[in-house]
Amino acid sequence: MKLYNTLTRKKEEFAPLDGKTVRMYSCGPTVYNFAHIGNMRTYIFMDILRRTLRYEGYKVKGVMNITDVGHLLSDADEGEDKMEKAAKEQRKSPYEIADFYTKVFFDDLKKLNIGKPELTPKATEHIREMLDFVYALCEKGYGYETSDGIYFDISKFPAYGQLSGINLEDQKAGARVEVNDEKRSPFDFAIWKKAPKEHIMQWDSRWGKGYPGWHIECSAMSKKYLGEVFDIHTGGVDHIPIHHENEIAQSYGYSGKNPAKFWMHGEFMLVNNGKMSKKLGNTYLVSQLEEMGYSPMCFRYFCLNTHYRKKLNFTFEGMDGAKTAYARLCALVAKHREGENDVSDEKLAAYRKEFEEDVTDDLNVPGAMGVLWTMLKEPASRKIYALALEMDKVFGLKLDEAKAEEVKEEFPAEITAIANERAAARAAKDWGKSDELRAKLDELGYAVKDTKEGYTLTRK
Ligand code: AMP
Ligand code: ZN
């Protein structure tokens, strides 16, 4: 299968290093707040990748960190600690805050049918490993001390910027990066922070009490659970220029190696073509969508229709469309469940082949979804049903739970208008007109059946 590697900027043939098990690390949530639907888009991408790898016959060992400490307000390690800020605001201990949001996060993953990675280590339970990483970096000459912490000296790693393609000299000239007097370069970043007395979360270190930098967390935990070099590292595109560059720099400092063979990034979700932000009040949560009548599966379907490397604009019109389409998809699948028609093996094999070509081409899920739709238009057949469920191992749309009777079909307005006109003709005992309109509906592909309450419409 082919996957796009941000590091090389091209699609490359993928196979796990050991031939069997894919070792994969995904940057997880910072649990000082709710994860919004934009975050969830990135985890749906991770899930589709995991599912496709399994479909291809590989085992997957996935690790996703839970950042329950030390993620500062900006990626560049400036500003207040997010966990500390939330704890103060909510008058709770940071552990209570983290436990609460971690639970909600896992509940959301479940609702969205996102498989939980095999290991979900918490940062606070790996301070020892992080400190060992920091000590090793200092011993190798990559770390230096300032009055507020220990920093990584990027001048010791000339290849810095390879992932994002940034040129440090140009960046320096642009002076977009704040300069901290004691830092040797504005791009040096904290691997350990010295804790002021009032800081709630702090641990003993060679430099007294302190807490880890955010980037060191991922480097230390990926090394512990997946080894110095593993197969795939995922995250959102915002992680490319700082977080992942810094992870790479740290790993080079530690082991002389890039920690991942493939670096993969999910594009952002926008809202009304703009940024999703708390200030604008447009950071929707899965639970809020549910309150508005959009099921988690409908949101998942909405996400699957755009390739993970394209921006996805969230709108309620888009969600309405996804809701109707997902209901129709379920109705079609249910139609095939008991279908008696036969389908040739050649035809089934052709659908399967087309589906597999799409998903193994850098997760072309929208293409694969098109194959599913075309296939479902065949005459009702159990064989089609079985193949749709096979495909759903990748989509994860719970198509096995699709029940025809639960799905209320929505019809084009002109069709409903004709059906209503016919009902009115019947009420007026104008049988001629009623038959005429039935024939018209028939011609357009709809069947109408009269009932005690009125009528029912079905697509033929
Ligand atoms: P955070 O908790 O901020 O570290 O974000 C968790 C994950 O969501 C990271 O992989 C981010 O890259 C990703 N992410 C943040 N905002 C968005 C967005 N608007 N669309 C898609 N992914 C996002
Ligand atoms: Zn990370």
From TrEMBL:
Residue span(s) of domain Cysteinyl-tRNA ligase anticodon binding: 410-453
Protein's GO biological process: cysteinyl-tRNA aminoacylation
Binding site for ATP: 278
GO MF annotation list: ATP binding; cysteine-tRNA ligase activity; zinc ion binding
A GO cellular-component term linked to this record: cytosol
Motif 'HIGH' region boundaries: 29-39
Annotated localization: Cytoplasm
Superkingdom of this protein's organism: Bacteria
Annotated Zn(2+) binding sites: 27, 218, 243, 247
Keyword annotations of the record: Aminoacyl-tRNA synthetase, ATP-binding, Cytoplasm, Ligase, Metal-binding, Nucleotide-binding, Protein biosynthesis, Zinc
Alphabetized CDD domains for the sequence: CysRS_core (cd00672)
Listed cofactors: Zn(2+)
EC number(s) recorded for this UniProt protein: 6.1.1.16
Span of domain tRNA synthetases class I catalytic: 14-322
Reaction(s) catalysed (UniProt annotation): tRNA(Cys) + L-cysteine + ATP = L-cysteinyl-tRNA(Cys) + AMP + diphosphate
Gene3D superfamilies named in the record: Cysteine-tRNA ligase, C-terminal anti-codon recognition domain (1.20.120.1910), HUPs (3.40.50.620)
The family this protein is said to belong to: Belongs to the class-I aminoacyl-tRNA synthetase family.
Oligomer status and interactors: Monomer.
Protein name listed in UniProt: Cysteine--tRNA ligase
Natural source organism: Candidatus Borkfalkia ceftriaxoniphila
Lineage: Bacteria, Bacillati, Bacillota, Clostridia, Christensenellales
UniProt gene name: cysS
